[in-house]
Structure formats: C-alpha cells, structure tokens
Amino acid sequence: MRRNLDLAYVVIGAGMSGILASIRLREAGHRNVTLLEKAHTVGGTWRENRYPGLNCDVPAHAYTYSFAPNAEWSSYLAPGPEIQDYFEDVTARFDLREIAHFGQEVDSCTYDDGVWTVTTKAGMTLEADVVITATGVLHHPRMPEIEGLESFAGTIAHSARWDETIPLDGQRIGVVGSGSTGVQLVSALADRASQLSHFQRSPQWIMPMPNIPYSEEQRAAFRKDPALIDAIRYDPEYLANVFRFTEGIIKPDSEEMHIIETIVRDNLEQGVADPVLREKLRPDYRAACKRLIFSPDYYQVVQQHDVDIVIEGIERVEPAGIRTKDGVLHELDLIILATGFHADRFIRPAVVTGRGGASLDAMWSSHAAAYNAISLPDFPNFFFLNGPTGPVGNFSLIDVAERQWGYIEQLLDKVTSGECAEICVTGEAMARYDEARTEAARGTIFASGCSSWYLGKDGVPMTWPWSYGRFAEVMAAPDFADFEMVDARLPA
Ligand code: NAP
Q: Model-level pTM?
C-alpha cells in the first residue's frame, strides 16, 4: 500500500518517549519530523535528575529500547548517568540531532482546519499534521511550602535541580522527603556527610532489591550473544514480579498484594534492630499505596550512628537549620529538597487548543486523562506517549511507551494510507473510558489511603487501573469504533 510520507510531524520532548517516536517515525520513512526539546540536550528525567545515588529501580536490560539493546550496562540496576549516556548514544546512533531543536520550549499548540500550529517560547512556529506529546510526567519540581525556607544561611538544593559543585563531604545534611529520590539520596550521602538527618513526613515501605554489578566477562558475553540480554529482559522471574505487582495494584486484597506486604513487612522487622527506630520507619498505610521504594541498603544506612530519622514534622526553616515541631533545631549546612514533582501537568503550561476552540486546560480541570492514555476528543492527530492515565508503577516505562507507539502507529496508518486525514477518539468513547477508568482507579491500592503523586486533584489515581495484560491487549489493536475519522481537507 502506498503511504503518504510527507506529513509533517512535531514530537514534543526529547526524553525517552520522544526519542522513541522520532526513531520510529524516521524508520517508517517519514521525511518531515521535527523534535522539539525545552532543554539543551536529550534524556528527559535522566538529564534533569543528577543527584548522588540516582539509580533506576527497573532492571537495566528491561529499561532499554527493544531495538537498541545495550551490552554495556554496569549493573543489574543502572546508575542514572549511565542511562543518560545511553539516551545520548541512541540519539547519535539514529542521527536524531538532524531533526532536534534544543532550547525550544513549546508554549502553544493550536488546531485549525486540519493543521496544528506549534509555537515555542524562543520564537519558532511550525505547522504540523500530527503532534506527538512526549513531555514526560515528572519534570516540574515541587518546592515545599515551608516557612522560612529562604532564610536558611546554608545551601538549599532541589533533587531535580542538582548542582554538582555543592560541597557534600563532611557537611551536616538534611534530606526532606522520603520518596524514591529521598531514599536514594540518603543511601548515597550517609558516608559522605558528617551528620545526615532524614526528615520524613510519611515513612515508606521498602522492597529489598539487591543490585549486582556485571563483570567485564559478562558484558563481553552480552556483546557476543544478544540472546543473553533477552534472557534478562524477559526473565520469567522478573516478569512474574511485574505481573504480581500489577495484579496486586488493581486487587488490593489479592494474594499478590499480600505477598508484597509480607516481603516489605519482613524487611522492616528483620532489617531494623532498634524497636524505636523500627516504629519510626513503619508506615501507617498499605504497601504500594505510594510508589514502592526499592532499595538494597536503606535500612542498613539509617542504622548508622551519624544518620538520624526525624519524624517530628517540620515547623520552619531558620538560618541555622530546620526546627521541628518538638522545638528541636537540627543544625545543617545543606538542605536537600527531595519533595517530588507536580505530576499532573504533562504538556502544560503550554496552551493547547483543539477543534472548535476546545481547551486542554478546561478538559483537564478536574483531572488529567486521555482515552487509553493516547487520544482526546477534538484533538485530531494529537497523541500522548506516557501521558495521563497510562500505567505507572515499578516496571519499565520504555515497555509502556513502545506498546503505546505500536497503537499510535495503527492510528497513523489510517492517515498515511489516505483513509482519513484526521483521527481522534469520539467524545462518547472518551466519556465511557473516563467513567470506567475512574471507577476502577478508586478500587486500586493507590486509592487505599495515602497521599502520593499518583492522585489527581480530585483524589482519584490518575493511572491505568487495569492489569498490564489488559494494557498490552488494548495497545495491540485499537478499537476503531471508538475513533472519529474525518477528512478535514475536503472542500465544504
Ligand atoms: P515523591 O515520591 O513525590 O516524594 C516526595 C517526598 O517529599 C514525600 O516523602 C513527601 O511526603 C515529601 N514532601 C513533599 N512536600 C513536603 C513538605 N512540605 N514537607 C515535608 N515533606 C514533604 O518524589 P520523588 O521521591 O522525587 O519520586 C517521584 C517519582 O520519581 C517516584 O515515585 C518514581 O516514580 C520516580 N523516581 C524513580 C526512581 C527510580 O529508581 N526508578 C528514582 C527516583 C524517582 P509525603 O509522602 O508525606 O507527601
């Protein structure tokens, strides 16, 4: 079948998903693909996050594009800088710099009569037939509202705005926040700080996860035989863990969730000797309600004499340090805010306007959602990768994005083959999806009574609420009855 390979594509964001979309489009022969990136280089979250101890808690060979295996990973779980290098390397291998424009933060996407006009803050204006938004989820750092923060006489750093020149050795360091980031920072800094205080508003359940380095012999074997890499990527035990985890998420009273709860409870009981410290570290909500923390050593680290777990609550910051609600002043040289991200923004603050003036902001006024996490009514040929209501959890978002791309490709086939000029979900299908999704999301472990970045403004998890198997099935074959296909360019 002949295909139109001259459609204009704009891909927004040169992180993991945007790199994927750009490669796939060019591989399919599309000649007019533009990749816009707000920052100075590719990498997304791995470019933004460079804090000490940054590590991916998904096995490195599973957190790799299926079409670009990497024999060089140094360990089972890769350190952040290696992942950034991988994305830089893939970008070079697939010549993406030819189509990439850096320093181009998109500030509007406007649809009119079959054409998307995309503008950037730096002054670019592009016309596109198709827009792929691959802007990521966690890229607007959340600064906590703590009284007196600006009065601190030492240094304050947010984990996602890391400055490598900040002195760490021999410093009195306070880490605020106990998500994946805070826990990794504490593990990495305990031996470097003279005193480390971990301020926890909510303690976390910790899943023990050893990290094993790969030897040079193993890497040589991976280079020679890619089947060895696949054996790790598709390791039945790893996949069984992912399956157990995603089943547990959607069925909080299932055997799978009880197994997870038992593992993390045993980890706490057996991992922390001092009963007072153990109780400080015990969460009062269910395991996996917040994103589970995977750590090989957090409990060992916090038992060191120069590490302090502070659960009294922060009253305010003073020039000399953090004063907690019990009146104690914790004197510090450096405060690290591991306080997370505004996770409901996606492409926003860019202003996105669809057909008939439809406003993305208005559509997302109660919560961000997209049909099957991909499409919105009245936003023709406008697709999300790792957008709202997609699967999130302790598994590979690269696998998620690759499956989503397979779905988008099938939608695009309708356009490139000339069957239609535009495609987007119908309003009716979107409403049906949103209702069913919201209902199911209320029953997931994420809604079992804790705060987390998974929850939307309305308190309902913004995530895929069904099994990973169902996600894979849905992505494999779009239900075209749910889509509106129009030829907008026919004369009226
Ligand atoms: P996060 O999970 O949102 O955690 C933020 C932490 O800051 C929470 O402990 C929160 O406490 C605390 N906090 C926020 N505001 C506060 C305030 N005003 N006072 C005191 N504490 C405050 O953020 P994150 O740790 O950066 O992780 C975000 C996500 O990034 C993760 O869930 C994960 O998806 C991803 N990540 C992944 C990896 C990996 O290894 N793959 C590593 C790092 C991050 P409450 O819980 O009480 O709200």
A: 0.95
